[in-house]
Amino acid sequence: DVKVTQSSRYLVKRTGEKVFLECVQDMDHENMFWYRQDPGLGLRLIYFSYDVKMKEKGDIPEGYSVSREKKERFSLILESASTNQTSMYLCASSLSQLAGPSSYNEQFFGPGTRLTVL
Amino acid sequence: KQEVTQIPAALSVPEGENLVLNCSFTDSAIYNLQWFRQDPGKGLTSLLLIQSSQREQTSGRLNASLDKSSGRSTLYIAASQPGDSATYLCAPTGFQKLVFGTGTRLLVSP
To answer: Which end of chain A is more exposed for a tag (fewer CB within 10 A), N or C?
Structure first.
C-alpha cells in the first residue's frame, strides 16, 4: 500500500516564525502536492512538484515556498507565518501521467497537519 | 478554469438506505475522476478512480459513474451504514492535477 506521512499532526506557531512542513512517500511517485483545506473553501493547491528539484505554483502559492531535494520528500515552507495561514495542510503523491496510461494519476494523501498560527 | 459542484452539501439518512451523491464539473477535458472519503480532522482516503474512457467503477457497496460529455459523476452507496458517515469529495483530473469540489457531508444514523 502507498504510504504518505506528514511530520506532525498538530502544530502551533507564532506569527513571523519560519515553519517547515515535511511530507514523505514510500512508493517512488514522481508527483507530490501540497494543499490547504479551509471550511467552505475546500482543498486548494498550493504547490506541486513533478520531479526532484522541480516545482510549479498551484492556485494559492503566495506566502509559501517548497523544496524537493529527494524524490520521496516534499517540504512546504512558510517563510514568515501569519494568522491567515492557520489551516489544515494535506500532502499527496501520485505517479506521473507521463508514465503511461497504466498510472491513472491516482493521488494518495497523508493524514494532514493542522497548523495554528497565533 | 475547472469548477466542481457537489450536491447535496449535506445528507442525513437512516441506516440501510441506498443513496446517490452528485458531482458536476465545467471542463469535460479530464483524464479521470477520483472519489475520496474524509473523516473529521483526517486526510483523504481514495475510494474509486474512473478513467476518462470508463463509464463506471465499482468497489464493494460503492459504484461511481462518469459521463464526461455532460460533466457529471455520481457515487452510489448501497445499504448505507453508520460507518459510512464522512465527507465525500469528487475530484476530476486535468494534466497531473486534481480540482476538488467542497464535498457532501453524509450522516447515516442507526
So the answer is: N
